[in-house]
Write a structure and sequence with these properties.
heteropentamer, A mainly alpha (about 280), B mainly alpha (about 260), C alpha/beta (about 260), D alpha/beta (about 300), A: about 280 residues, mainly alpha, MetI-like fold, 13 helices, globular, B: about 260 residues, binds adenosine-5'-triphosphate, ABC_transporter_ATP-bind (chains C, E), NitT/TauT family transport system ATP-binding protein (chains C, E), ATP binding (chains C, E), ABC_transporter-like_ATP-bd (chains C, E)
């Protein structure tokens, strides 16, 4: 009985009302209450363990401040290190992710709709995505003249698969009714892809994009392990080489925070783009 | 997987190899740095006779499959939970989104410290990384379920769990399988990367460390060839399973098969 | 059996139902007619507990329903989306019977029998996408009938079938109702049908809908497709309902 | 740990080693049965590097591992509790060279100012040795940019111009010389770094304390292997292809370092002092405190 | 305009159409009636080039069609699956007009006008899931009409609307046809409707379907909902078609 009552509550959610300070407080609390709990538990556990490999979060945060937030207020406290090291890497990450997204969506939709063409390249795709990026670096170092190009290639090559696969799948499984309708109204190829297949596949594409966004952070780090002179991965490398355990944790924490922020922005954008979808499947 | 499809796939692979061969032979790519495909393929075939390699391959593959199976076992229920229980999703999202972008290179040293057993350590790393595609695809898939289909069952008085099992899950299944296909690739990558970063007694990654240290790029690439082949095979198996299980999905959506 | 008291509903700020009062007695069949978009399906969803009305109450046997009432079956207007594409026709019909604690075999048998009743004996193992619109709709009807609910809600259940099949299905519903004492609420656009099958016909106004009239159908039972429709009372009733539903000059042709 | 008749605390040892010539003695000792003679069973596994092996000895998934001294001293300075239990490998002339492409305008170490140099690991022997070489040429570490590349990728990085020079060891020196005609710019193991100790064997303090007899047995057996390696290059040439991917014919031509037969405190202290001089360590490190047990020659 | 010659189709080994011959003249409106599941939708999909029939030919203006013919519009039976959920009603109607090279504004205006004609003036910015079944169906009709095709195929386009709206829509289709000289093939289950709107009524047999009869509807134009339906010729025709369609004892009630 209880399950049924809950199911009703889930389906018949009252219309969200905006504004009201209480609501905002509630929104924040319901989203973040678990975070302080986990951090506190972590702090306690780390203090109890007292191992140099597992510094408590308080120590990590201090190290983070020292590394990246010891600059002048005029620069938002960003240190030289932060500006010189973090920004270029993030720039490469975004460039790589955007490029991969673009190529992934375009190629995915094209291959999703062109079955025969897909048959030719599919084994290659599944082959390529199973090769570990560290092993690919050999190839990319050979193909490109600058480290930046190599790094970009590693990022693109590493993150493109979720977008590509999900786009292919999405484009493949568009509701037949939509396609038939487009066909009888004589929509051209371009129009059909752009106005029917793309929106119909959008939910899957977004799942892929969201996956690849955090993957991009990971690949950014991996790409900076070879031949780099800046970036979060480089910082991680230096911290590891220097047996600087708080430093290693600081980069991990930074990556996590970045990941959270990126994802939050992404979800915001997705909500806008897929509003029809969200509303269409929520309201019954 | 029809005959024509197999042939086309083979043609695609052959075409790629031919282009690569040409690129190397014509000097566009440096032959001294990158052995041509013919050489690599020959090495790869010869590797079958190398017991060190084959036992490594078996080890890697077994860790890969174990890790993938565990990832599915964890991620599908978790995805269902987060996809259906809004407050749980809201509360855990900051943590999950925090954990997702932590790279294996940072994770593996910590994993080694925490998990003394080499096998378990590698499995954990594989599971950690390959969890996400299944989790996210499950969550997105649940959102896609036609609300009317759910209402249909609810109207017959079925509870939340029954609706989940009998409507939401079947209709999400194709979405989940796409996630599994993605995860299979990632799990394989991690199975090898864990060995590359942590070493070990055997494995494809260990083989690569050895080949690299001995300046045997041909062997490194031959090993990569095997990794890729494993990826293609697993994908083929998953696609075949998908086709059998979700015929309704393919036919109904007019999927180009 | 069913009592709807002052039910009102709004989607966002669009008022759709504005105080509906309605009741269906034990074993009664009440037809509901009203213009397209007036809120009939919304009413049905409220009764089924699928949406929470903004106002008012739904009582079943005197008890206010907060969630989907027990022992209920619904035939949705959008039948094609309410069938499960991964199940065959028989599978779709058999699925709800799990709640009745029937064995696998008994479920299958009941499903086949119900499919046979709606004229789909040969299509039990077809999947929804292999069936025509009318066949899918009949699967949805078979699913509801096989369930033998105490209360059956149907939203234009015969919209996609030909005249002959429609009449057969009407008679089928009447027969099942009589044998199993179901209470039925049937939404329809066919005024003749509303009279033919109904013990009572409820006419709704345009949105925001209220009940214009609730007419008792005083025709002898069992009904007969030819004899009943020829009765003077039948003709009078259908004209009256026709008049009630019509008379809104809201569509402008492009003459 | 399973005890045994001859008083060993542990008879099976898990030992990590890199697939390069440095740990040759271990494999010789194993092949010749020296460990067996001591009642030890040695299980070797491949490690990804000294730093990567550290967590493994700490959590006990390895008992003993190969390490390089620079890493070890750095780790110790950060508070890691490690003991060195045997020496393994020491630089010889032309074992670690700075290489440039054939037609590179860089002629001497002094020309490296403002250039990029590839090393296999940042903040390690490579950077240390190159810095020492730069010092002779009147340059400092800051005058060049170090980039980390795995040895196998250095050939490509150098040909593609991603770096200007690369710090390379065997078998890559020989390979790049013969394949690409790379030119030796400098031998980084001269002067200050001549005969620099490179690699040794480590275990945790705890392990060393709890297993003194086992360690002694291991040291004795390893020393026999080390002796063979030091005296007979043929032994090394024969064993290297068995645990690395280096081919027989390559093993025959590459330049090898030396295999010291004692764990000599003075020699190792040189490394720590160099590290202090170039800022790798912030304070003096007394190497003597790190040595586990006496190693009998 | 349209000529279907000996069209046959089978799904797998189930023969559905068994040699259909049919033609629609320029500006003609042909109604098709037939039992549920006989193959009407299949016929329509073949004409629209959406499935390749196993046998026979479809000719448009004498040219065999291999793909979807140009200048065609279709109202599908499964309207809810043919509306794009990511577009509003107006967006759905306006989308196909892109092909006509109309400006964004002209498209929007045409869409609004068409929605107005089907009685949805106030719902232009609603999304499909915010509309009732009948409203969705009318959006699909508006989309087809706004497109002003030379050939219009409609599969039970008025199944989900009330009697009054249905009549208005019937008249709307007739008016648009007259003004723009469309040729129309209309599948319906309502025999009265098939006669009222049709210049000719084609009756199909059960599956595998063949053409039983093709009756010319000899009624004066323009038609009028009241006057036309009272004509003796109308009553005679509908009875005749009724007889043709019926007479298959295939549904067994559970009396
Ligand atoms: N999910 C929804 N969100 C917003 N508005 C809705 C929603 N569902 C229905 N409506 C609106 O509510 C009104 C009534 O819809 P409902 O489906 O109840 O009508 P109906 O009487 O069943 O019509 P029809 O006979 O055409 O099926 C319509 O105007 C419709 O636009
Ligand atoms: N995709 C399909 N695969 C297999 N069989 C199909 C498919 N579509 C239709 N059929 C079968 O073909 C026959 C004719 O279907 P069709 O949809 O053309 O009927 P219809 O005349 O439109 O019926 P209705 O009036 O109920 O819509 C039916 O028996 C149906 O089971
Ligand atoms: Mg409705
Ligand atoms: Mg049909």
């Amino acid at each position: 009985m209880k399950a049924v009552a809950e199911s009703r509550a889930g389906a018949v959610r009252p219309e969200p009302r905006r504004g009201g300070p209480l609501r905002i407080v509630w929104a924040v609390v319901s989203r973040f209450w678990l975070v302080p709990v986990v951090v506190a538990a972590w702090e306690a556990a780390a203090r109890a363990a007292a191992s140099i490999d597992f510094p408590p979060p308080s120590a990590i945060v201090l190290r983070m401040r020292e590394l990246w937030l010891s600059g002048p207020p005029t620069r938002l406290f960003l240190s030289d290190d932060a500006i010189a090291d973090l920004l270029p890497g993030l720039g490469r990450m975004f460039a790589g992710w955007l490029l991969a997204s673009l190529v992934g969506v375009v190629a995915g939709i094209a291959l999703g709709r062109a079955a025969t063409a897909a048959h030719y390249v599919e084994p290659l795709i599944h082959f390529a995505r199973a090769v570990p990026p560290p092993m690919l670096i050999t190839l990319f170092v050979l193909l490109f003249r600058s480290s930046t190009q190599t790094q970009l290639a590693v990022i693109v090559f590493g993150v493109i698969w979720p977008v590509l696969l999900n786009s292919m799948d999405g484009a493949r499984s568009v509701e037949r009714g939509y396609l038939d309708t487009a066909a009888v109204f004589g929509l051209g190829r371009r129009e059909r892809l752009l106005r029917i297949v793309l929106p119909a596949a959008a939910p899957k594409i977004f799942a892929g994009l969201r996956l690849s966004l955090s993957l991009a952070l990971i690949l950014m780090v991996i790409s900076e392990l070879v031949g780099s002179t800046d970036g979060i991965g480089y910082e991680l490398l230096q911290a590891q080489r220097g047996f600087d355990s708080p430093g290693v944790w600081a980069t991990i924490l930074l990556l996590g925070l970045l990941g959270y922020v990126l994802n939050a922005v992404f979800v915001l954008v997705e909500r806008r783009v897929l509003s029809w979808h969200v509303r269409g499947t929520r309201t019954t | 997987m029809t005959g024509a499809r197999l042939v086309r796939g083979a043609v695609g692979v052959a075409g790629f190899l031919a282009v690569a061969e040409l690129a190397v032979r014509s000097g566009y790519l440096d032959e001294r740095l990158l052995p041509p495909p013919t050489v690599v393929v020959r090495e790869a075939v010869l590797l079958v006779a190398d017991p060190e390699f084959t036992s490594g391959l078996v080890g890697t593959v077994s860790r890969w499959l174990t890790g993938l199976a565990l990832a599915i076992a964890i991620a599908v229920p978790a995805g269902v939970l987060l996809g259906t229980v809004a407050w749980a999703e809201r509360a855990t999202r900051p943590l999950l989104e925090f954990l997702r972008p932590i790279p294996s290179v940072a994770l593996i040293p910590l994993a080694i410290l925490l998990i003394p057993d080499d096998f378990l350590m590698k499995i954990s790393v594989i599971v950690y990384a390959s969890l996400w595609p299944i989790l996210i695809n499950t969550m997105y898939g649940l959102r896609e379920v036609d609300p009317l289909a759910k209402d249909s069952l609810r109207s017959f008085g079925f509870g939340r769990l029954a609706v989940l099992c009998r409507v939401s899950l079947p209709s999400t299944a194709p979405f989940i399988v796409t996630g599994v296909r993605l995860s299979a690739g990632i799990a394989l990558i991690l199975a090898i990367s864990a060995e590359l970063l942590a070493g070990g007694a055997e494995g494809l990654g260990v083989f690569v460390i050895r080949a690299g240290s001995g300046n045997r790029t041909d062997l490194v690439i031959a090993a990569a060839l095997w990794a890729g082949t494993a990826g293609v095979l697993s994908n083929t198996a998953l696609v075949a399973a998908e086709r059998r299980l979700f015929r309704w999905h393919h036919v109904r959506s007019g999927a180009v098969t | 059996m069913l009592k709807v008291v002052n039910l009102a509903h709004a989607y966002g700020d669009q008022q759709v139902l504005a105080g509906i009062d309605l009741s269906v007695g034990d074993g009664e069949l009440v037809s509901v007619v009203g213009p397209s978009g007036c809120g009939k399906s919304t009413l049905l969803r409220s009764i089924a507990g699928l949406i929470k009305p903004s106002h008012g109450q739904v009582l079943i046997n005197g008890v206010p329903v907060e969630q989907t009432p027990d022992d209920l079956a619904v035939v949705f207007q959008d039948y094609s989306r309410s069938l499960f594409p991964w199940l065959s026709a028989a599978g779709n019909v058999a699925l709800p019977l799990r709640r009745k604690g029937m064995s696998r075999r008994a479920r299958r048998e009941a499903a086949l029998a119900a499919l046979d009743q709606v004229g789909l004996a040969g299509s039990a193992d077809k999947y929804p996408f292999e069936m025509s619109g009318g066949m899918q709709q009949r699967v949805a009807i078979a699913r509801a009938l096989a369930y033998r609910p105490a209360l059956l809600l149907m939203d234009e259940p015969f919209a996609s079938v030909d005249a002959q099949t429609r009449e057969d299905l009407e008679d089928l519903v009447l027969a099942v109702r009589a044998n199993h004492n179901m209470s039925i609420l049937l939404i329809t656009h066919d005024i003749d049908e509303s009279v033919y099958v109904g013990d009572r016909v409820v006419v709704l106004t345009r949105s925001p809908a209220t009940v214009t009239e609730s007419l008792t159908v005083d025709l002898p039972s069992p009904r007969d497709q030819i004899a009943t429709r020829e009765l003077e009372a039948f003709v009078r009733l259908r004209s009256e309902i026709g008049r009630l539903v019509r008379g809104r000059p809201d569509l402008v042709g492009e003459q | 740990g399973q005890a045994s008749g001859n008083g060993l605390e542990k008879t099976t040892l898990k030992v990590g080693a890199l697939p390069i010539p440095d740990p040759a003695a271990l494999f010789i000792a194993k092949a010749k049965g020296f460990f067996k003679e001591e009642g030890l069973e040695v299980e070797t596994s491949i490690i990804a590097g000294g730093a990567a092996a550290l967590p493994k000895i700490k959590n006990g998934s390895l008992d003993i591992s190969q390490t390089n001294y620079v890493s070890t001293f750095l780790a110790v300075s950060k508070g890691e509790k490690i003991k060195l239990i045997a020496d393994a490998y020491q630089a010889a002339p032309n074992t670690f060279n700075l290489m440039v492409p054939k037609d590179s305008p860089i002629r001497t170490a002094a020309d490296l100012k403002g250039k990029t140099v590839a090393v296999n690991t940042l903040t390690n022997i490579g950077t240390l040795a190159v810095t020492a070489t730069l010092k002779v040429a009147g340059l400092k570490a800051d005058d060049v940019t170090f980039k980390e590349y795995p040895f196998p990728e250095m050939g490509a990085a150098l040909t593609q111009g991603q770096v200007d020079a690369a710090w390379v060891t065997e078998p890559f020196i020989t390979a790049t010389q013969s394949q690409f005609g790379f030119r030796k710019l400098a031998d980084t193991m001269t002067g200050q770094t001549a005969d620099l100790p490179i690699a040794g064997w480590m275990a945790t303090d705890e392990f060393a304390k709890n297993n003194p007899k086992t360690l002694a047995a291991f040291q004795r057996a390893l020393a026999k292997g080390q002796q063979l390696a030091a005296n007979d290059r043929k032994e090394v040439e024969a064993i290297v292809p068995t645990y690395t991917s280096i081919k027989q014919e390559t093993a025959a031509v590459i330049t090898l370092g030396t295999f010291p037969t004692t764990l000599n405190e003075t020699r190792l202290q040189r490394v720590a002092d160099l590290m202090l001089e170039y800022g790798y360590l912030t304070g003096k490190l007394d190497v003597k405190t790190l040595l586990a047990g006496a190693s009998t020659p």
